[in-house]
């Protein structure tokens, strides 16, 4: 049986820190589904179509990675995709308790385990919201965002 992990989020944009988590996650599982939430109440910088297209482009040559949109509970979507694990990333020790609580809830709701990975030290200060803010002011963010995204927005 394949070990599939779901990597949930509304990446806006998808940062280099996220890329490193995906690479490390592939060391733990056979396949990863990058699941982009479609919460209509969440303010985003990119449209759903832009996010799907951009993130799909980053991984188009990797058959072990799928990119899909979803709505509703993450654990429900994980079960639908046959994921046995949820992959989560944290930037600091302060995030750990929150993620541990989320993992406990996910386990109780669905029996799905969670891999909580620290973002690499060089990416600990990076978050999608910081990059989104820089982009909105026209700042250069190529150190933080995969070049595919930067080029798409020029």
Short structural description:
The protein is of the alpha/beta class. The chain has helices at residues 16-25, 48-58, 74-81, 93-110, 128-136, 147-152; strands at residues 4-9, 31-37, 65-70, 85-90, 113-118.
Radius of gyration: 15 Å
The CATH superfamily is: HUPs
List the helices and strands in order.
Answer: EHEHEHEHEHH
At the first level of CATH, what is the class? Alpha Beta
Proportion in β-strands: 15-25%
Stated plainly, the CATH topology is called Rossmann fold
Distance between the termini: 43 Å
| Biggest beta sheet summary | 5 strands, parallel
Characterize the structure shown:
- With 154 residues, the chain is of the alpha/beta class.
- The protein has six helices and five strands; from the N terminus they run E-H-E-H-E-H-E-H-E-H-H.
- The chain has a single domain, classed as HUPs (Rossmann fold, 3-Layer(aba) Sandwich).
- A five-stranded parallel beta sheet has the order 3-2-1-4-5, with helices on both faces.
- The chain is globular, with a radius of gyration of 15 Å.
- The model has no long low-confidence stretch (mean pLDDT 82).
List keywords for this structure.
154 residues, alpha/beta, Rossmann fold, 5-stranded parallel sheet, 6 helices, 5 strands, 40% helix, globular
Question: SSE layout and pairings?
Answer:
Layout (H helix, E strand, L loop, with lengths): L3 E6 L6 H10 L5 E7 L10 H11 L6 E6 L3 H8 L3 E6 L2 H18 L2 E6 L9 H9 L10 H6 L2
């Amino acid at each position: 049986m394949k070990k599939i992990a779901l990597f949930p989020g509304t990446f806006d944009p998808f940062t280099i820190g996220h890329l490193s988590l995906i690479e490390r996650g592939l060391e733990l599982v056979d396949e990863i589904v990058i699941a982009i939430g479609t919460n209509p109440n969440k303010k985003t910088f990119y449209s759903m179509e832009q996010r799907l297209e951009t993130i799909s482009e980053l991984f188009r040559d990797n058959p072990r990675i799928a990119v899909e949109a979803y709505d509703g509970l993450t654990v429900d979507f994980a079960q639908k995709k046959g994921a046995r694990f949820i992959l989560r990333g944290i930037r600091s020790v302060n995030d750990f308790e929150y993620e541990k609580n989320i993992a406990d809830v996910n386990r109780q709701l669905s029996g799905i385990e969670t891999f909580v990975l620290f973002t690499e030290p060089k990416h600990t200060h990076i978050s999608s919201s910081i990059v989104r803010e820089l982009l909105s002011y026209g700042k250069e963010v190529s150190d933080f965002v995969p070049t595919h995204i930067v080029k798409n927005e020029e």
